Amino acid sequence: MDKTKVIIVDRQKAVKIPTGIRLLIRRCCNAVLQMEKIPGSCEVCVSFVDTDEIQRLNAQYRNHDNATDVLSFPLGIDGNYDVNPATGAKQLGDIVLCVPIAVEQAKRYGHSFQREIGYLTAHSMLHLLGYDHEQGGIEAVRMREKEEEVMQSLGLPRDGSYAPNADEDLT
Does residue 101 carry a pLDDT above 80? Predict the structure, then answer.
């Protein structure tokens, strides 16, 4: 049977990671791989970071000097991945989640922290598999549909829109 190894590292102290989040991340990774029918064993590394660290990484690797919610660092191109010689697993890449921003976005969008982390994980996994929404258009729509399909399969459907709560002051 194919296995997915998800290595999770907490490199931040800003937010205590709730019980069950690590399992949720593993379930999200597996759900994306199953949905995309990716054969064989795979490895993914997920890091929790704070706002300063994600801003530093975003500036270093994307030339955007601002904090963001998640960064994806794919190791493959067009479905071709390096293979871990010890395990035979495809090395898909790294996901870097900014926990304080995930907390803020969950509040802003009126859903749970679990849903936000699940969504960001699914989003990033799709990036590791080659999906891109940066140019907008049909690719962005396809990616959003796949993200929501994963969230539905995990019992974390979208409750509303991605617009901030009307009564929230964002200034």
Answer: yes
